[in-house]
Amino acid sequence: MSKPVNPLPIAVDPQDTEWLERALQATSRSMAVVLGDFCLDAYWEIDPDESEISIETGLPVRRIRHQRYSPGGAGNVAVNLQKLGVREVRTVGILGQDMAGGQLEALLTASGIKTGFVVNSDASWQTPMYAKPMLSGKEMSRMDFGAFNELSPTLLDELIARLEAALVGVSVVVINQQLPQGLFSPVLIERINAVIANHPTVLFVVDSRHYADHFRGAVLKVNAHEAARLLEKQEGDIPQCATALAQHLSTSTGKPVIVTRGEFGLAATDAGQAWIVPGIQVMGKTDPVGAGDTVVAAVAAVLGGGGSLQDAIVTANLAASITVRHIGGTGYATPEGLREQGARPDYVHEPELAENPLRAQYAADSEIEIVRELPASGILRHAIFDHDGTLSTLRQGWEEIMLPMMMKAILGARISTVPGEIYQEVEREARSFIDKTTGIQTLVQMQGLRDLVRDFGFVPQEEILDEHGYKALYNQALLEMVHARIRKIRDGELAPEDFEIKGARVFLETLHAHGVVLHLASGTDENDVKAEAEIMGYAHLFGGGIHGAVGDVKIEAKRAVLERILSAPEMVGQELLVIGDGPVEIREGRKRGARTLGLASNELCRHGLDLTKRKRLIRAGADLIAPDYSQQAKLLPLLARLSPL
User: Is 162 a residue whose pLDDT tops 80?
Assistant: First the structure.
């Protein structure tokens, strides 16, 4: 067996739950300056009614029903810093004497940001503005203002003087270069480098789209596409070259380098040490606009207050996962929002491996994939099993029942009349939702369905059901199928073995015989999962209890069982094994330091590998992947030590 290689250590310690409070305390100590391209984002909502024709042009008149504005570019970085709880934020940049400049300065001031160091130019400078016409909720071709500004020597001198004045008493400066032409030029960057050299006690953090390798003495934040460009790599090499760029630039600058990797999270390096932070699983739709600004703001806020680089990048990753949930505008992370997400978010592990089965490493002469080698210490004391798809296939096919039910709920009366492309879009969204939520209790899934119904807007508000209403519709269809299968077992037409993952019963009996306390935890209603375990003939083996949903979305059975077991003073995570075919139980086990086995079985055959399950189980944090329990003799030694018989 060749060992799986993790190229970089993970910056996240699952046992460290104090990092978030450390980071927020550091943030509250920071005093920040933001220098850069201050832009205005303008959203103009166009009324679709084109009945009025212009007399002058003969073209339909586009009327604006609503308009809204928000700070963009360096302005968005400044607002992110303020929202994160930085003690004071000062801005240094250039605004024109135009509508956009006045609007932007007013927005920054209203947010509590100090604008006294901003240079107000004459009419020759056009405040950068991204004008975004919106029609029926979709952004049309953008119109950009300020793309042809030129920085005169007089403005340059004034800008540097304002920067020097703004540095008094601050701990960190964020430099944000957004536009290819205008404020930043080789001459200005050299002047900024001189300021950096003259202020060794102030931390400078640079986020530059076009000139990242021109700055000296500053912490650099770049995205993966900039990494590919700077290292002359192809797009397909982005995950690998992100780390290479961080190490290359950190060596030359002597400062930390952070590379954002989209859904793959972050990579960072400093003084020869390197880390990665996994991406975070986000349910529902996402919008990446502004996520990079959030990252650089969070990194600067934590480092500026004396926090560690590891705390900074983990905080930045969590903050970005909050902002991407805001659709159609710019979202912000706050201390309250960060605390709500918590110190143990749902990380996406090994995404490159999950996407590419050809990279899999297997135990010798087996079909058992080694994602992460487990330590040999500790004797296994407890094991938590998921039920559906992990032990039993009584509910096999539930996705095919949930999908049409979701489609009907989302599209309502228009299900047979919407254009094909809209139907396909809804179907893609529904399938993605089902894949992401596999393993959680049904009531929580139905909450998500309710939100999707609202977001798509095909169903009138008064006709939208609550989560209990949608669950009743789904359960009615699902239980018809399950009860029909149970009747066949009771009538002797089929046997429990016909609905059992290969080798499951023998595996349970082996663990039970070695004194391992077995627990069954399911997202299915508790009464139903108990009845199904009884009909399958293994309910008596679960001395730790059979747990399911109890009709309260605040009580997650799998999470509750894990927390109860691990709360025992004699228990440590490595003495617990979590086995499941869904991401929820694997993710919760990984967070708590348990050993995790992803059971990626083809439910139609009840044995063999399901590649879709493999992908989501690796992303959830599985240590091992097995297609079934048929290779028990090889699987058990890889998982843990057992007490002797």
Answer: yes
Tokens 């699952």: give the residue.
Answer: 14
> DSSP code of 61?
P
- Pick from 354, 386, 363, 364: nearest CA to 599: 386
Q: What is the C-alpha separation between 210 and 226, in angstroms, rounded?
A: 8
Over residues 124-148, the pLDDT tens digits come to 899 999 999 998 778 889 999 999 9
Residue 335: HSE in the Cβ half-sphere, 13 Å Cα cutoff: 14
A 10 A CB-CB count for 281 gives 18
pLDDT in tens, 517-540: 999 998 888 999 999 999 999 999
pTM score: 0.81
DSSP strands (E only) in 526-606: 546-549, 576-580, 595-599
- Do the beta carbons of residue 254 and residue 407 sit within 8 Å? no
Distance separating alpha carbons of residues 317 and 268, to the nearest angstrom: 12
Distance CA 544, CA 409 (A): 38
Cα–Cα nearest to 226, from 214, 241, 236: 241
Among candidates 466, 469, 459, which has minimal Cα distance to 407?
Answer: 459
What span, in angstroms and rounded, lies between the C-alpha atoms of 494 and 487? 9
Closest listed residue to residue 146, CA positions, set 121, 165, 171: 121
Question: What does the alpha-carbon distance between residue 613 and residue 630 come to, in Å, rounded to a whole number?
Answer: 18
Are the CB atoms for 453 and 459 separated by under 8 Å? yes
